[in-house]
Write a structure and sequence with these properties.
Elements: H1 2-15, H2 30-39, H3 43-52, E1 57-58, H4 59-66, H5 70-82, E2 86-91, E3 94-99, H6 103-117, H7 124-132
Antiparallel strand pairs: 1-3, 2-3
Helix pairs in contact: 1-2, 3-6, 4-5
Length: about 130
């Protein structure tokens, strides 16, 4: 995972602003997108991104939310920071994290919406749409 994080970080830094779009199957960003999914293939990191969608939080507060030790949460946040999903600031001895961009939050929300389809019935996100339709 360390090599993956390093590759992801280097690619994000080197190529982040080179090309707009890239939504084609032959895009140079396909492999990088796979690395993004690999970074999010951990329930704790997904929970951290969901928690951070409402704004900046301290490591201890995040640890309480995801029910993990602050040390464990710090390690996950370090990976997310290296991959540029989150950014941090220090205030005294406390470190606060926030989402770097809204894309991670949207990606995680869409993954959860997709997961809702796998349990059968009408997914919760479609139930609201059905109620709003006249």
């Amino acid at each position: 995972m360390v090599a993956l994080t390093h590759t992801l970080c280097n690619n994000l830094r080197m190529h982040a602003d080179k090309e707009i779009g890239g939504i084609d199957p032959d895009s140079q960003f396909v492999e990088l997108a796979v690395e993004v999914f690999a970074m999010l293939a951990d329930a704790t990191r997904v929970r951290l991104i969901l928690a951070l969608k409402d704004g900046e939080m301290s490591v201890n507060h995040l640890a309480d939310i995801v029910d993990k030790s602050p040390a464990s949460v710090s390690q996950h946040l370090a990976k997310l920071r290296l991959a540029r999903f989150v950014s941090s600031r220090q205030e005294g001895t406390r470190v606060f994290y926030r989402l770097e961009y809204e894309h991670a939050s949207r990606l995680v929300a869409d993954a959860i919406f997709q997961a809702e389809h796998s349990v059968g019935g009408i997914p919760r996100h479609h139930q609201q749409e059905a109620q709003d339709t006249p």
